[in-house]
């Protein structure tokens, strides 16, 4: 199997990088991060005009009809900024849910950028996100109502609609809520907007999704998130190398010291191993390979560990200034930390890998 990107995909990556570097220099990223929405109407229109908002939308609904391998190119490049705003939540998470869950009428608006969606799944905790769900859905008089609290809804405060995962009498299900009215919550990463959604007898429309479909959504969305973390780690490494050439101690650039070289080499290894895992996981999803679930769990667990480690090491290489707002690398570290707690922390994904390799192991006498 050839895991090299095609010439078209390489050209796509370069065009994405060129556009993002031109439109979103570090000062612009910080400016957008300070806004509640995290993105401007002009920027979102640009994404739509370039087809990015419809990368995962089938062509018959106005999108590009591409797969996860193509989408991770976008996510890696956006992670390098890191880009504020609702791209992952709407063009990724919500799009991955809408089509398979039977809400195809939402896809055209997602593709052309005229509407934005999100998925309300996380309710906190470090275990399996689906096991942590306490939100309930009850049918009465031909309609469904939802009760519960979603603690970390990506960009829920600006979404036009949310797909909410909740318990029904028959198991987990998914429900469409129009105008969710979620409230923005403060996090350590001002560029990753998360909202709190309180559901109190909220009317909703039931969608066609069982636990298997929801689990697949979680895996694919986690792979996209992992790609973003790889991009953040890659750029943090580049910033560390640039700084090590500029910072002089004892008459020499700090990059000339052996300890610094060893650290940079270890950082590069972690970035490249994470990248390979993410790329493979995306391919297994597009091909619906037998090891898709295991590949997703490996990618999610290792990318989180690698990104937190590499961005943290970059801060250390920057020294005291690395801990200040003036150093852009702190945004990469914060993005890596917040990504780790969305859709299952790295420890849970690592446990999934163990269970999938060994099988659930019971107690022995």
Describe the structure in your own words:
- The protein is an alpha+beta fold and 365 residues long.
- It has eleven helices and nine strands.
- It has helices at residues 7-23, 26-33, 41-49, 68-79, 87-98, 107-112, 211-246, 258-287, 292-318, 329-341, 346-358, and strands at residues 117-120, 136-140, 143-154, 161-168, 171-178, 183-185, 194-206, 248-249, 252-253.
- Helix 9 (292-318) packs antiparallel against helix 10 (329-341).
- It is globular and about 80 Å long.
Mean pLDDT: 95
Bulk shape: globular
- State the secondary-structure class: alpha+beta
Helical stretch count?
11
Oligomer: single chain
Question: Helix amount, in percent?
Answer: 40-55%
Q: Provide the β-strand percentage band.
A: 15-25%
Major β-sheet profile: 7 strands, mixed
Please provide a brief summary of the model.
The protein is of the alpha+beta class.
Tag the structure with descriptive keywords.
two-stranded antiparallel ribbon, 365 residues, 7-stranded mixed beta sheet, alpha+beta, globular, 9 strands, 11 helices
Write the layout of secondary structure elements.
Layout: H1 7-23, H2 26-33, H3 41-49, H4 68-79, H5 87-98, H6 107-112, E1 117-120, E2 136-140, E3 143-154, E4 161-168, E5 171-178, E6 183-185, E7 194-206, H7 211-246, E8 248-249, E9 252-253, H8 258-287, H9 292-318, H10 329-341, H11 346-358
Parallel strand pairs: 1-4
Antiparallel strand pairs: 2-3, 3-7, 4-5, 5-7, 6-7, 8-9
Helix pairs in contact: 1-4, 4-7, 5-7, 7-8, 7-9, 7-10, 8-9, 9-10, 9-11
């Amino acid at each position: 199997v050839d895991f090299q990107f095609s010439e078209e995909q390489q050209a796509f990556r370069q065009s994405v990088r060129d556009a993002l570097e031109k439109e979103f220099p570090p000062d612009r990223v910080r400016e957008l991060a300070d806004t509640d929405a995290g993105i401007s109407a002009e920027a979102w229109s640009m994404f739509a005009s370039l087809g990015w908002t419809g990368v995962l939308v089938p062509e018959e609904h106005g999108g590009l009809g591409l797969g996860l391998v193509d989408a991770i190119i976008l996510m890696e490049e956006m992670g390098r900024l890191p880009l504020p705003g609702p791209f992952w939540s709407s063009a990724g998470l919500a799009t991955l849910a809408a089509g398979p869950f039977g809400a195809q009428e939402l896809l055209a608006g997602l593709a052309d950028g005229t509407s934005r969606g999100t998925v309300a799944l996380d309710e906190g905790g470090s275990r399996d996100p689906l096991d942590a769900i306490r939100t309930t859905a009850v049918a009465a008089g031909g309609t469904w109502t939802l009760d519960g609290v979603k603690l970390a809804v990506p960009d829920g405060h600006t979404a036009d609609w949310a797909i909410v995962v909740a318990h029904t009498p028959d198991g987990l299900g998914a429900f469409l809520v129009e105008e969710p009215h979620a409230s923005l919550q403060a996090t350590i990463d001002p560029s990753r907007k998360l909202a709190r959604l309180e559901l109190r007898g909220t009317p909703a429309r039931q969608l066609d999704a069982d636990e298997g479909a929801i689990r697949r959504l979680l895996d694919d969305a986690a792979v996209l998130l992992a790609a973003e973390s790889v991009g953040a780690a890659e750029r943090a490494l580049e910033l560390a190398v640039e700084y090590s050439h500029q910072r002089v101690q004892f008459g020499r650039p700090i990059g000339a010291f052996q300890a610094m070289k060893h650290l940079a080499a270890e950082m590069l290894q972690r970035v490249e191993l994470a990248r390979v895992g993410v790329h493979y996981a995306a391919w297994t999803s597009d091909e619906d390979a037998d090891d898709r679930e295991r590949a997703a769990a490996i990618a999610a667990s290792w990318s989180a560990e690698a990104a937190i480690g590499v961005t943290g090491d970059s801060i250390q290489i920057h020294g005291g200034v690395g801990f200040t707002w003036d150093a852009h690398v702190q945004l990469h570290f914060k993005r890596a930390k917040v990504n780790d707690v969305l859709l299952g922390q790295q420890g849970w994904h690592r446990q999934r890998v163990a269970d999938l390799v060994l099988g659930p192991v019971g107690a022995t006498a």
